[in-house]
Structure formats: C-alpha cells, structure tokens
Design a protein that fits this description.
By secondary structure, the protein is of the alpha+beta class. 23% of the residues lie in helices and 25% in strands. The strands form 2 sheets. The chain has a two-stranded antiparallel ribbon with strand order 1-4. The protein has a two-stranded antiparallel ribbon with strand order 2-3.
C-alpha cells in the first residue's frame, strides 16, 4: 500500500516550510494554511524532508 502526505490543518501555523522545500506537493491555501495539492508530485525522500522541516510536526504519512 502506498503512503501519501497528510497535513493536520488544525495544527498548521502557516510557516510555509513545506511549500518551500517541496512546492510540487504542498501549497498554502487562501487562509494561509498548508495543504497537499499533489501527493505524488515528488519523491518520498523530498516529501520526508518537508515533513522533517515542519516546526509543529503537523505533516505525517497516511496509507492511500
């Protein structure tokens, strides 16, 4: 089973680290909160780097 990134938007502080490190997967919505717009837009390693860069640890993996 494949894994895809998931953002707990209630915990997101809108810092933009995920979008900066992996813009093909993450973007900021109109409310300034991160969202996943293409869960398959980058390698697992690049997505993991974005997960690791989140200061509030609100990004995780979930089963697709």
């Amino acid at each position: 089973m494949a894994r895809i990134p998931f953002i707990d938007q209630d915990e997101c502080i809108g810092c933009g680290n995920c979008e900066e490190s992996c813009p093909d997967v993450f973007r900021m919505n109109d409310d300034g909160i991160a969202e996943v717009h293409d869960p398959h837009g980058a390698t697992i390693e690049l997505i993991q780097d974005a997960i690791d860069a989140c200061p509030v640890e609100c990004i995780s993996w979930e089963e697709e």
